[in-house]
Design goal:
Blueprint lengths: L8 H26 L10 H55 L6 H24 L1 E2 L2 E2 L6 E6 L6 E6 L9 E3 L5 E3 L12 H51 L3 H28 L2 H5 L2
Antiparallel strand pairs: 1-2, 3-4, 5-6
Helix pairs in contact: 1-5, 2-3, 2-4
Length: 283
């Protein structure tokens, strides 16, 4: 090989390799400091697309589980209110049974009717004032609970209809229709007690059916929330396998590139020193 000073090929090679080593070392340090193997699209384009897609799925599933939980909260609010309605109806049944007994005088029957009227008013109040997140709970308008993994094929909508609650419609029938009408016989007396008693008994059954339907819907939404949570955990694990830094491999690479960087610097220094030999020929 001839001696020359125009191009130091050895130094150029050493500098090129040193630059590549420094870049690899920088990438390795970035992975170690961020905890992520993929910090830009250049690191792994396909892996980035897959990891970001999985992250979007996880975000949708996490919110979906919260959606289902919110739906459960609304249904539980309705169920708790209906439990109180049942207690009121049972008290009304006691009053109607008592009023039907001929041993009561007019004043006593009137007192029973006064309490019965208060019960009817309170049932109406429960139906009109019970709300969840500022929205009326007892309504014939269905509430949609949306659960999704972020894709069209992975989306499900649950339509939850609790139904209205008024003194003219207490509970729901097995066909989902209006419940018992407690306003048919407005006044509790000895003459109307038997009819009112039958209506109240039917109302208790209708409320029980409504609560059973609500309970089934609660179980359905809980199951949907559990599925969403399970999917979220599994997809998070899959995303982590793709995106996360393998610290064992990264620390080994760091040690390798640090040694290569030091030897590269030494080699570049030696390559530059070779040029000095030309001066000896001129002495």
């Amino acid at each position: 090989m001839s001696l020359g000073v125009l191009n130091n090929i050895s130094a150029i090679y050493a500098q090129t390799n040193l630059n590549m080593t420094q870049k690899s070392l920088q990438n390795t340090l970035t992975q170690l400091s961020s905890g992520s193997r993929i910090n830009s699209g250049a690191d792994d384009a396909a892996g980035l697309a897959l990891a970001d897609g999985l992250h979007a799925n996880v975000a949708a599933l996490t919110q979906s589980a919260q959606n289902a939980s919110a739906g459960v909260g609304m249904l539980q609010t309705a169920d708790g209110s209906l439990a109180q309605v049942t207690n009121l109806l049972n008290r009304a049944i006691t009053l109607a049974t008592e009023a039907a007994n001929g041993t009561l005088n007019t004043s006593q029957v009137s007192s029973a009717d006064q309490e019965y009227q208060n019960i009817l008013t309170e049932i109406g109040n429960i139906g009109s004032t019970t709300n969840y997140n500022g929205q009326a709970v007892f309504s014939a308008t269905p509430v949609t609970v949306f659960v999704s993994d972020g894709t069209t094929s992975g989306s499900t909508s649950f339509s939850e209809t609790i139904g209205a609650l008024t003194t003219a419609s207490v509970g729901t029938t097995s066909g989902g229709g209006a419940g018992s009408d407690l306003t048919a016989s407005a006044t509790l007396s000895g003459a109307t007690a038997s009819t009112i008693l039958n209506t109240l008994t039917s109302a208790v059954q209708n409320v029980a059916y409504q609560r059973g339907t609500i309970g089934a819907n609660i179980n359905q939404l809980n199951a949907a929330a559990n599925v969403a949570n399970t999917q979220s955990v599994n997809l998070s694990s899959a995303e982590n396998d793709i995106r996360a830094t393998n610290f064992g491999q990264a620390t080994s690479d760091m040690a390798k590139y640090k040694v290569l960087s030091q030897t590269g610097i030494a080699a570049l220094s030696q390559a530059n020193a070779v040029q000095q030999d030309v001066l000896k020929l001129l002495q």
